[in-house]
Amino acid sequence: NAGVTQTPKFRILKIGQSMTLQCTQDMNHNYMYWYRQDPGMGLKLIYYSVGAGITDKGEVPNGYNVSRSTTEDFPLRLELAAPSQTSVYFCASSWSVERNTIYFGEGSWLTVV
Amino acid sequence: DAKTTQPTSMDCAEGRAANLPCNHSTISGNEYVYWYRQIHSQGPQYIIHGLKNNETNEMASLIITEDRKSSTLILPHATLRDTAVYYCIVRVETSYDKVIFGPGTSLSVIP
Fold first, then answer.
1. Which residue does chain B place closest to A39, by CA atoms?
2. How far apart are CA B110 and CA B45, in angstroms?
3. Cβ atoms < 10 Å from Cβ of B89
4. How many H helices and E strands in chain B?
5. Distance separating alpha carbons of residues A6 and A8, to the nearest angstrom
6. Between chains, do A45 and B43 touch, taking CB under 8 Å as contact?
7. Average pLDDT of each block of 10 consecutive residues along chain A (113 residues)?
8. Pairing state between β B18-23 and B70-75
9. Residue B82 φ then ψ, to 5°
């Protein structure tokens, strides 16, 4: 089982550029999440989704957009990248029933210069 | 906001038990206590969860007080590889809510 897969692992962006962080899970989970983690800090929820076609804002959604067209995929879009978006981004997923254990991807390191 | 409070950091001698406390005084009757840990630069990893009974698995034990307002994660024989940030969160087992992580406890296992 691949679990939660994120791409790319590392990326350097210039200020004002845009990019999409890809996330896919093969566990048929309904819930998916995007977190960011600044150096030495805790996890901050950006956006989450409870199923295909349903998304909602988390704690720090400004500067990001998401979509959920399929159960498997939950891409995170950065528009007009800013240095404040330099961070590690984690995608995660969990089941909707039985157990709510959250499974995390390995992270995507993004630097905006 | 996170519904839990944890100490910022703790030290533990290698081979000894590490006891990590968590306060969740506003926990609701249908909320479970979950523990995760994050080893440097990796994605957080699930450890254990429970509702009101004590739980044990191959990684750790979870002790929840009778009033459920606090809990303790126990790593029975800490190793250097247990050095990590440990997060305690509370949530309903089948909830649709967003999952908020607090700052966690940074555990350092000392040789």
1. B41
2. 22
3. 22
4. 0, 9
5. 6
6. no
7. 90 97 94 92 91 93 96 96 96 74 93 97
8. antiparallel
9. -85, -5
As given in the structure block, the two tokens for residue A15 are: 């200020």
CB contact under 8 Å between A90 and B44, yes or no, is yes
A101/chain B closest Cα distance in angstroms = 7
* Residue with tokens 């995170």, as numbered in its chain: A76
What is the pLDDT, as a whole number, of residue A62? Answer: 96
> What percent of the residues of chain B are helix, what percent strand, and what percent coil, each to the nearest 5?
5, 50, 50
Which pLDDT score is estimated for B95? 60
Q: Are A21 and A109 in contact (CB under 8 A)?
A: no
Q: Tens digits of per-residue pLDDT, B44-99? A: 999 999 999 899 999 999 999 999 999 999 999 999 999 999 999 988 766 666 77
Separation in Å, CA of A99 to nearest CA in chain B: 6
